[in-house]
Amino acid sequence: MKPPPISRIVVRGRLSGRFGGSFDGMMIEPGPAETALVGRVRDQAHLYGILERLRDFGLELLRVEAGEQ
Question: For residue 1, is it within any domain?
């Protein structure tokens, strides 16, 4: 069984490294105006968990980029 592809979840604003442990295995790639959470999203429940945390932190979701297999 192949591992899930690498995905990018992009939010508005710049997140500091202190958020790193909040997103279950996702790496934070901060940019000047947006931040990407990059990693393997295991399944739909994992994705929803990440999206719920973004909402709880009051972050604006810009896009979700599903990686290729």
Answer: no
